[in-house]
Automatic annotation (TrEMBL):
GO biological-process terms attached to the record: D-ribose catabolic process
The species this protein was found in: Oryzias latipes (Japanese rice fish)
Sequence positions that bind K(+): Q237, H276, P279
Protein name, as recorded: Ribokinase
Binding positions (substrate): M15, T16, D17, G43, K44, G45, A46, N47, E144
EC number(s) stated in the UniProt entry for this protein: 2.7.1.15
Recorded superkingdom: Eukaryota
Keywords from the UniProt entry: ATP-binding, Carbohydrate metabolism, Cytoplasm, Kinase, Magnesium, Metal-binding, Nucleotide-binding, Nucleus, Potassium, Transferase
Gene this protein is translated from: RBKS
Length: 297
C-alpha cells in the first residue's frame, strides 16, 4: 500500500489519556473521590492524523508505541480509522506514552505526561518510512516527539518536494531556526506564537503582527489560531494577513481544555488544502467548532 500515493503522512506522538473527573483537584498528598473515569486516544500527532483520515483522505502515521496493552489498542484505533499503520513501530524499551488528567467541575485540570516510547522515534524509523514520505502530498509534524526527529522528517519531505505543515506544539522558546525554512504552512495558537515571537498575542491585531514576524523567519504561510476569535492567515508570498472568524458554539463538556483536541483537529484539517499552500478563506475554523461541541476531542 505504501507504493501508492498518500494524501497525508503524520510524524508525531501517541498518548493514552487516563482521565478522571472530580469535584475539585486534590491537594498534595490528598486522596479524593471522583465521579467519572475514561481512557481516550490522545497525542498531538495521532489526533491530527485521525482527524485527517476522518475527513476522507489517505493517511499514514509514523510513530512509536510500547509493546503493551495501550500500544496494541492504539494500533487498532488507527486501523479502525483507516490510517495506514505500516510505520507504527513498537518497542519493549519504553511504555506507550500516557497522560494522567484530573479535571474539576470548572474544567480546570492537572496533567502529568510521560512521553515514553514517543521519544524513541528517530532517524532509523524515518528512513524505513521514506517510501511513504516521498509519496505523500503533505507531511505534518509537531514537537511532542524529539524535535530533531520532527525537523529531519520535514527536511526529508522538502527534499522530495512534499508540502509540509508544522505545528510547533508544545512550543519551545529556542526553536531551531531551520523549522521555519522547511515549513510551507506554520500553524500555531496564540500562546505558541507569543512564546516564539516574544510579543504579546492577546487579540486579532496582535496576531496579524505575530504572523508577519513568523513569516520573516522563513516559513511560507502562517496560521495563528485564536480560539473563539477564529484565526489569522498569512498566505505565502503575500504581505497582508487576513482574519477568519470562528463559528459560535456552545461547549457541552469541559473534560479537557478545548485547545487540546480542537487545535489539533484544526491542524489535521489544514493538510487537506495544504498542497495549495494555504486554505480557502473559511475552512480553518470549522473543524475546531465541530470538535469543541463534542463530548470528547
Amino acid at each position: 500500500m505504501t507504493e501508492k500515493a498518500l494524501d497525508v503522512v503524520v510524524v508525531g506522538s501517541c498518548m493514552t489519556d487516563l482521565v478522571s473527573q472530580a469535584p475539585r483537584l486534590p491537594k498534595a498528598g490528598e486522596t479524593i473521590h471522583g465521579h467519572k473515569f475514561f481512557i481516550g486516544f490522545g497525542g498531538k500527532g495521532a489526533n491530527q492524523c485521525v482527524q485527517a483520515a476522518r475527513l476522507g483522505v489517505k493517511t499514514a502515521m509514523i510513530c512509536k508505541v510500547g509493546k503493551d496493552f495501550f500500544g496494541n489498542n492504539y494500533i487498532q484505533n488507527f486501523k479502525d480509522n483507516e490510517v495506514l499503520t505500516d510505520f507504527v513501530s513498537q518497542t519493549s524499551d519504553e511504555a506507550t506514552g500516557a497522560a494522567s488528567i484530573i479535571v474539576n467541575e470548572e474544567g480546570e485540570n492537572a496533567i502529568v505526561i510521560v512521553a515514553g516510547a514517543n521519544m524513541l522515534l528517530g532517524k532509523e524509523e524515518l528512513q524505513e518510512a521514506l517510501p511513504a514520505i516521498r509519496r505523500a502530498k503533505v507531511l505534518l509534524c509537531q514537537l511532542e516527539i524529539n524535535p530533531q526527529t520532527s525537523l529531519q522528517a520535514l527536511q526529508m519531505a522538502r527534499e522530495h518536494k512534499v508540502k509540509t505543515v508544522f505545528n510547533p506544539a508544545p512550543a519551545i522558546s529556542d526553536l531551531d531556526c531551520n523549522f521555519y525554512t522547511v515549513s510551507d504552512v506554520f500553524c500555531c495558537n496564540e500562546s505558541e506564537a507569543e512564546l516564539l515571537t516574544g510579543c504579546s498575542v492577546a487579540d486579532v491585531e496582535d496576531a496579524h503582527r505575530a504572523a508577519q514576524e513568523l513569516q520573516k523567519r522563513g516559513c511560507s504561510a502562517v496560521i495563528i489560531t485564536l480560539g473563539s476569535q477564529g484565526c489569522v492567515v498569512l498566505k505565502a508570498q503575500e504581505s497582508k494577513s487576513i482574519h477568519v472568524p470562528a463559528a459560535a458554539v456552545t461547549a457541552v463538556d469541559t473534560t479537557t481544555h478545548p485547545g487540546f483536541g480542537c487545535h489539533k483537529g484544526f491542524c489535521g484539517a489544514c493538510v487537506l488544502p495544504a498542497k495549495h499552500v494555504i486554505p480557502p478563506s473559511c475552512f480553518p475554523a470549522e473543524p475546531a467548532a465541530v470538535s469543541v461541541v463534542s463530548l470528547t476531542v
